[in-house]
């Protein structure tokens, strides 16, 4: 996706460099740095609902792109707060499809810690590393409260990534997402 973003952004070059075609932020290292960018939000929502994440297959690419573009959702926690009026704004979501999504959203609340950690889109954390982190820290809260030196003890995590993961948990948008997920039934304590 980053190479596609870079190719598209090359058409939108401004005086300061290439800009994201979706939000007009200046591209840095082939990536849009704007966490609110609809492209990044859609990527996060897709990862959240993927089979390796909390598994919401009815929430497909078309739906997450619309949710992000309409700015109805900025992070996965907001998925669980959408009302009927919000879903009505999306094209192509029938009542039956919405019922399927609602059922899968409810079922996703029982996802294990490694699925949640993968779905949270932590920096550089793939499915295998999410499993190692879940084993090492036993819960999302255990990881959230960890120090970079504790993170470095997990196989596959170096100094830079340990710092990036610790920063992820300190970010205000990510804190809000976690709080909203907890308020909607996710259990992050061990």
Q: Which helices and strands occur, and which strands form pairs?
A:
Layout: H1 2-10, E1 13-14, E2 17-18, H2 38-49, H3 61-69, H4 84-88, H5 95-108, H6 113-119, H7 127-137, H8 140-144, H9 148-151, H10 159-170, H11 172-183
Antiparallel strand pairs: 1-2
Helix pairs in contact: 2-3, 2-6, 6-7
Indicate the mean pLDDT.
Answer: 88
The biggest sheet, with number of strands, parallel, antiparallel or mixed sense and barrel status, is: 2 strands, antiparallel
The low-confidence runs, each spanning 5 or more residues with pLDDT under 50, are 8-14
Strand order of the largest sheet: 1-2
Beta-strand segment tally: 2
Q: What would you call the structural class?
A: mainly alpha
Mind telling me the C-alpha Rg?
A: 17 Å
Domain tally: 3
CATH architecture of the largest domain: Orthogonal Bundle
Named CATH topology of the largest domain = DNA polymerase, domain 1
Percent of residues in helical segments? 40-55%
Distance between the termini: 34 Å
Based on CA inertia axes, which overall geometry fits? globular
Beta-strand content bin: under 5%
The named CATH superfamily of the largest domain: 5' to 3' exonuclease, C-terminal subdomain
- Count every helix, treating DSSP H or I runs of 4 or more residues as helices: 11
For the record, the CATH class of the largest domain is Mainly Alpha
Quick overview of this protein structure:
The protein is an all-alpha fold. It is 53% helix and 2% strand. Mean pLDDT is 88; it is low at 8-14.
């Amino acid at each position: 996706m980053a190479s596609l973003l870079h190719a598209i952004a090359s058409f939108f070059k401004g005086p300061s460099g290439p800009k994201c075609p979706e939000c007009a932020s200046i591209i840095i290292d082939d990536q849009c740095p704007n966490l609110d960018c609809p492209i990044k939000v859609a990527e996060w929502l897709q990862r959240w609902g993927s089979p390796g994440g909390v598994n919401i297959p009815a929430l497909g690419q078309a739906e997450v792109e619309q949710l992000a573009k309409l700015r109805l959702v900025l992070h996965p926690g907001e998925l669980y707060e959408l009302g009927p009026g919000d879903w009505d704004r999306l094209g192509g979501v029938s009542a039956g499809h919405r019922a399927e999504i609602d059922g899968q959203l409810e079922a996703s609340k029982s996802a294990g810690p490694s699925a949640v950690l993968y779905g949270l889109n932590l920096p550089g954390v793939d499915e295998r590393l999410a499993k190692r982190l879940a084993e090492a820290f036993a819960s999302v809260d255990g990881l959230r409260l960890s120090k970079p030196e504790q993170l470095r003890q997990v196989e596959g995590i170096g100094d830079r990534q340990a710092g990036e993961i610790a920063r992820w948990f300190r970010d205000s948008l990510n804190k809000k997402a976690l709080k909203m997920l907890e308020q909607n039934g996710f259990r992050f304590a061990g």
